[in-house]
Amino acid sequence: MTSKQLRFLSADSTARGAIAGGVAGVMALILASAALPARAQVGIQASPVDLSGSWASPLTQDALERVPGPVPGDWTGMPLTAGEKVLAQSYDAAMLAEPEKVCQFYNQWHYIDGAFSLRIWPIVTSPTDGIRGWRIQSIEDIGGMEIWLDDRPVPSEYARHTLHAFSSGHWVGNMLVAHTIDMKPSEMRRNGAFMSDKASLTTTFMLQGDSLMTVVMALEDPVYLTEPYIYVRSYDKSPNRPVPSAWGPCILNDEGTEEGQVPFYLPGKNPIMNQVYSQGKHPIVGQMMHYYHIPAIASDGGADTMYPEFRDKIKDQFVEMYSSFPKECTDAQYCAFGGGPPRGAAAPPPAAPRRAAPQAKAKND
Amino acid sequence: MRNSLWKSSLPMTLAVLASLGMQTVAHAQGRRGAGRAGPPQPAEAAAPIDLTGYWTSLITFDWRFRMVTPPPGDHEAVPLTAAGIEIMNAWDPAKDTAAGEQCKSYGAPIIMRVPGHLHVSWQDDQTMKMEIDTGQQTRLFHFARSADGRGAPSLQGYSVASWDQQGRGGKKWGQLKVTTTDLTPGYIRKNGIPYSDKTSVLEYFDLMPQQYQGETIMTVTSVVTDPVYLFQPFTTNDIFRKLPSGDSWKPTPCSATW
User: Fold this and answer.
1) Which of A113, A140, B89, B186 is deepest in the core (most CB within 10 A)?
2) Pick from B146, B73, B128, B135: which is nearest to B107 by CA?
3) B206 or A341: which carries more pLDDT confidence?
């Protein structure tokens, strides 16, 4: 065999060997990639669905409460304790402008109570690692949420509560269930109903089809709630309008309340709750009665207001008063907020004359 | 050398191909095996979650629109077209009552939002029945095509249902998906906000995997699409708490104003 032949043979065998080895390598890679989920499960629950991306929150539910802010005195459907009802009525929205509170931010409950879209991404520490957790982010004034799946130790009950709190999670089918503790106290509704630092949160993320996600939050608070307060919201996948994942820092401004002042009302002395619009068989007191004919036994909240049977308590009075509503809704009632026809559509009939706007709406986000 | 190189890689290649082949055969056998097992399991037996029983609404949001009748013209948060606003402004509950149409705000696009109780059961192994006491309505979720056809359009329309099975091994979980069409026109809110006969409703019924202070919770996500009166889908959510019995069941007739 000549050296030329040897070189040829050598080259040929190398090429064939490379081809054979390549085939084997590709096959091995296919098998290895098929085995990846199993590797990812080591120590960490594999994520059966991908939650990552931007999720837009349509304003088709509770639009008034989520954007401009709830009507003062509207605690309907909230299972508040008697003590919390008194506390909520002492609320003055000017307290949010205290210099100490301007950058206080909201806790994780505000993901669902607020108006904002979500951005979700997996927490991965190395390519060979599984998904250690999921990070949820919204606008800058809500504490972030990291849902850990890696069985890390739960902080001591004496641990300092942080804006991020502590969330651990697990999968049930395609649902991600997270339990959050050590939250900073924050508002349950942005008109004075605060939760205590003993509150905990269970959040369930559910994908529904390819482009819809529903999030269920259940807040439990042994101090201020008599039953779990459950809230649900759906989000549309929004690949073309990504939600920012980082925001600028909060900058202190003078928002109108001087340092050292603590705005509040003594129980029973809140002028917004006590404003008398008219006397008569059914006196119109407070904005919920004025704008919506909802009496104080409902707007003050309490667990019974969450259930259908509660309607029997207010039916007769409400039905009697209903005919006194103006035939057309007014701006002050925010009747068209978040609704109405798209731009360029024919204008709707003119609204009735504008009444005074609700006072002291909760601070916008 | 040529042979030795080829031979050295041959066993690995064969092993890989054999492995793939086994997987393919196993996959095919799985499919064939499923086929040999006979027709698909009836929906009742295949249910990954149990929705049967009595449930009560839990109204923790949108209270003003659900527990009482909203003021005339209040269409906050409803993506209503100009044509829809015109219809809404012409709402006359007395006229509806006189015409025997007081159930227009109890149709499938809104009935899950009406405060009340549900009784969920199986009418047969392919049809789930959902009765609602407020307004005395009944919905049927068909997992298989009905033998007697879809029938005429109605307040509750025709609902096609399927289970979305989830999870691998271990505990079964999933959700119920329901699509409803063939609706007669009605109101998506008590105060006369209309939906047309072109409306379709996509719903997901989910059982929460954990209890809250001992209570079982079901959520319903509804996406209402109406090319006539809505300029984008109207997405809402509702919560139900499971009841131990039917003691709270209280059938009440439809009302145009309450």
Assistant:
1) A113
2) B135
3) B206
For residue A64, the chain B residues in CB contact (below 8 A) are 76-77
What residues pair up with B58 in beta bridges, in sequence order? B239
User: How far apart are alpha carbons A197 and A161 in whole angstroms?
Assistant: 8
Asked if A48 lies within 8 A of B238 by C-beta distance, the reply is: no
- Rounded CA-CA distance A287/A311 in Å is 20
CB A142, CB A108: distance < 8 Å? yes
Per-residue pLDDT tens over the stretch B191-244: 999 999 999 999 999 999 999 999 999 999 999 999 999 999 999 999 999 999
Residues in chain B: 258
Would you state the pLDDT for residue A335? Answer: 85
Angle between helices A3-40 and B2-36 (to 10 degrees): 30
Low-confidence ranges of chain B (pLDDT < 70): 1-38, 146-148, 168-170
Q: What is the pTM of this model?
A: 0.83
Reply yes or no on whether the pLDDT at A350 is more than 50: no
Q: What is the ipTM of this complex?
A: 0.85
Q: How far is residue A330's CA from residue A308's CA, in Å, rounded to a whole number?
A: 28
Burial (CB count <10 Å: 0-12, 13-18, 19+), residue B85 = buried
Candidate from A13, A76, A339 with C-beta closest to B77: A339
Q: Which of residues 7-26 of B touch A (CB under 8 A)?
A: 8-10, 12-13, 16-17, 19-20
Looking only at the bridges linking them, the beta strands covering A175-181 and A166-172 are: antiparallel
Beta strands in chain A, from DSSP E residues, in sequence order: 53-56, 118-123, 133-137, 145-148, 166-172, 175-181, 187-189, 193-194, 200-208, 212-220, 229-237, 276-278, 284-285
Closest listed residue to residue B185, CA positions, set B198, B176, B172, B173:
B198
In sequence order, what DSSP letters do the residues of A220-261 get, joined into one string? E-TTTBSS-EEEEEEEEE-TTSPPPS--PPP-----S--TT-
What secondary structure, in 3-state letters, does B116-175 show? CEEEEEEEECCEEEEEECECCEEEEEECCCCCCCCCCCECCCEEEEEEEEECCCCCCEEE
B166 vs A17, A28, A174: nearest CB: A174
Contact A24 B77 (CB under 8 A): no
* Closest by Cα among A123, A158, A121, A163 to A142: A163
Backbone angles phi, psi at A102, to 5 degrees: -60, -40
